[in-house]
Specification:
Oligomer: single chain
Radius of gyration: 29 Å
Number of strands: 9
Strand content: 5-15%
Structural class: alpha/beta
Helix content: 55-70%
Largest sheet: 9 strands, mixed
Strand order of the largest sheet: 4-3-5-2-6-1-7-8-9
Number of helices: 20
C-alpha cells in the first residue's frame, strides 16, 4: 500500500471511529458494540465466516480451499461440531479451548435428564442427546478430565482429529480450536468454520454468534439439493442482518449431485437466483437485501475439488472416496485430477475469496463498520415509525365525535368485563392444575425417598459383612446424589408442565383478546 493510500485509509478509519462515537452518543449502539468496532479497526484483521446449515459442506470446502487434504473432519454429530478458526502461524499448530467447569456441569445436568420428558420439544431434545453423548464419551479421559476443564492446550496439527474428530480422545470437552497455518496470505486474516446454526450446546452457539458479530465477510454455503430454503433465509435475514457485514458471498455446494440427476448448471443457478431475488423483495429496504441484489451464486463441488487435490493413493484405499471418484468421472466424462478440479468449479469461489483478501480488505473493513451502524439506525427508525403510526391512531381516536367515542367506551367496558372473567377463570384453572401436579410430584418424590431410605438401611446392615465404614460413606453419598438428581428432575418436569399449560391457556386468551 502506498503512503498516500495508507494515509487515506487511516483518515477513513478515524472518521469511522467518530461516526461510531456519534452513534454511541445517540444510543444507536451499545458501549460493547463501540468497543468492538474500535478493536476491529485497530487490529486490521479481516474475519471471514463460513456459515450455513449442517451438512452443507463447510469443512469439505475449507479442506479443499486451504489444505488440499482431509484436515478438518466433517461434523457428524452435534458433539463434534466445534468452532474452528484458521489463521496464520509460523508452524502448523492447533490451539484448543476446553469447556469451563461451569459449562461442563451444565452438560452433565442435561445428560441426567430423561429424554421421554422432553420428546415434544425438538430443540431441548437435541441438547439433551448431545449432552448425553458428550458425557458418555468423556469417560475415556478418566481422571484427566477435571484437570483439562477451563484450560487451553497446544498440539501438532496432525493431532486435530483428537479434538474434533468423531472418535477423538478430547472431542467431548472441546469448545473451539484455532488452527495456525504457515500461508503468507493468511496474515491478518481469520477464517472461521462455524457449526451449523441451532447448535444444541448453548455455550458453543454463543461463541459462534460472537464470531459472527466480528465477521467482515460471510460465505453462505447452500446445499444444491435445497438451495436457499427457509432456514437459509433465516440465517441471512435474522442472524447476519443484525450484525452487519462488509461483503456476502454465496456458494452452492454439491452441484454435482443435481448434475448427476440431469439438471443443467444454468437451471441450478437460475433457481437459486430466483429464490434470492424473491427473498430480497420480501425484505426490501434491509441492508442484507441490498447486498444480495448484486450477488451471483457460485456453483461448485467441494468433494470433487478435494479429490482433485488429495493424494490418489488415499482415494484408492478408501471405499467411500473411490465410489465418489468413479461416479464423478462417469458423470463428467473425466479420468484425471486436473479435469476433476476444473469440473469442480471451485476456482470461481477460490478466486472471489482471494480477491477480497488481497485487494478489497480495507474497503470491506470500512463497509462492515458502516453497515453495522446503519443497520442499528434503521432498527431505531423502524421503531420510531411504529410509534408514529400508533400516535396517529390515538390522535384519530381523540378527534372522533363524542357519541362515537361514548359507544367505543361502552364497547370496551363490556370487553373489559368479559376479559376479567376469563382471567379470573384462568387463575382458577391454573390453581387447580398446579395443586394436582404438585400432589403427583410429591407422591413420586415420596417413592424416591423411600427407595433411598431403604437402600441406605440395607447398606448400614451390610457394613460389617461386605465393606468398611469408609465404603459405606461413599455408597450413601451415591444414594443421596441419585435422590438429589431425581428431585431436580421432578421439579424441572413440574416446571415444564406448568409452563406448557400456562402458555397454552394464555395463547387461547390472547386469541380471544385479538
Amino acid at each position: 500500500m502506498s503512503a498516500n493510500l495508507f494515509e487515506d485509509y487511516q483518515s477513513k478509519r478515524a472518521k469511522l471511529k467518530d461516526f461510531a462515537q456519534s452513534a454511541l452518543n445517540q444510543h444507536w449502539i451499545k458501549e460493547e458494540d463501540f468497543k468492538g468496532i474500535v478493536e476491529s479497526l485497530n487490529n486490521d484483521v479481516l474475519t471471514i465466516g463460513v456459515i450455513g446449515q449442517m451438512k452443507c459442506g463447510k469443512s469439505t470446502f475449507l479442506n479443499a480451499f486451504l489444505f488440499g487434504d482431509e484436515v478438518l473432519p466433517a461434523a457428524t454429530t452435534p458433539m463434534t461440531a466445534a468452532l474452528s478458526i484458521i489463521t496464520y502461524g509460523e508452524k502448523k499448530e492447533v490451539e484448543v479451548e476446553f469447556y469451563s467447569p461451569d459449562e461442563w456441569e451444565e452438560q452433565k445436568t442435561n445428560a441426567y435428564r430423561n429424554i421421554e420428558d422432553v420428546k415434544e420439544d425438538p430443540a431441548l431434545l437435541s441438547k439433551i442427546k448431545a449432552a448425553k453423548e458428550m458425557v458418555d464419551n468423556s469417560k475415556r479421559l478418566g481422571s484427566e478430565l477435571n484437570s483439562l476443564l477451563g484450560t487451553t492446550k497446544s498440539d501438532e496439527l496432525n493431532k486435530l482429529q483428537e479434538y474434533v474428530g468423531a472418535d477423538g480422545r478430547y472431542v467431548s470437552i472441546t469448545k473451539s480450536v484455532t488452527i495456525h497455518y504457515p500461508e503468507e496470505w493468511l496474515k491478518g486474516v481469520q477464517i472461521v468454520d462455524t457449526p451449523g446454526f441451532n447448535d444444541p450446546v448453548a455455550s458453543r452457539e454463543e461463541r459462534t454468534n460472537d464470531f459472527l458479530k466480528k465477521a467482515d465477510v460471510v460465505i453462505l454455503l447452500l446445499y444444491a439439493g435445497r438451495a436457499f430454503d427457509e432456514t437459509d433465509k433465516a440465517i441471512l435475514f435474522d442472524k447476519v442482518a443484525n450484525v452487519g457485514v462488509g461483503k456476502i458471498l454465496v456458494g452452492v455446494n454439491k452441484y454435482d449431485l443435481n448434475f448427476h440427476n440431469g439438471e443443467k448448471t444454468s437451471e441450478m443457478k437460475t433457481n437459486v437466483l430466483n429464490a434470492i431475488r424473491k427473498a430480497c423483495s420480501e425484505k426490501d429496504g434491509s441492508l442484507v437485501a441490498d447486498q444480495l441484489k448484486d450477488v451471483s451464486p457460485i456453483l461448485f463441488s467441494a468433494s470433487m475439488a478435494l479429490m482433485a487435490k488429495m493424494p490418489m493413493s488415499k482415494i484408492s484405499s478408501d471405499e467411500t472416496w473411490k465410489f465418489h471418484w468413479n461416479q464423478s468421472c462417469s458423470d463428467f466424462g473425466i479420468s484425471d485430477q486436473k479435469s476433476m478440479l476444473e469440473k469442480s468449479l471451485i476456482g470461481d469461489l477460490e478466486s472471489s475469496v482471494r480477491e477480497l483478501i488481497q485487494n478489497s480488505k480495507e474497503d470491506i473493513l470500512i463497509q462492515k463498520t458502516t453497515n453495522f451502524v446503519l443497520q442499528a439506525g434503521k432498527n431505531i427508525l423502524e421503531d420510531l415509525r411504529m410509534k408514529s403510526l400508533n400516535a396517529k391512531e390515538r390522535i384519530n381516536n381523540y378527534s372522533k365525535p363524542d357519541d362515537e367515542l361514548n359507544k367505543r367506551i361502552s364497547d370496551l367496558t363490556q370487553v373489559e368485563k368479559r376479559l376479567n372473567r376469563r382471567i379470573d377463570r384462568l387463575y382458577e384453572e391454573m390453581d387447580s392444575f398446579f395443586d394436582d401436579e404438585v400432589d403427583k410430584t410429591i407422591e413420586t418424590l415420596k417413592d424416591s425417598l423411600v427407595r433411598c431410605e431403604s437402600s441406605i438401611y440395607d447398606r448400614i446392615g451390610n457394613v460389617s459383612l461386605f465393606w468398611s465404614e469408609t465404603d459405606l460413606g461413599v455408597r450413601i453419598n451415591i444414594d443421596l446424589k441419585i435422590l438429589k438428581n431425581e428431585v431436580e428432575a421432578e421439579i424441572k418436569k413440574l416446571t415444564r408442565k406448568l409452563s406448557k399449560e400456562l402458555k397454552s391457556k394464555v395463547e387461547v386468551l390472547c386469541n380471544d383478546i385479538e
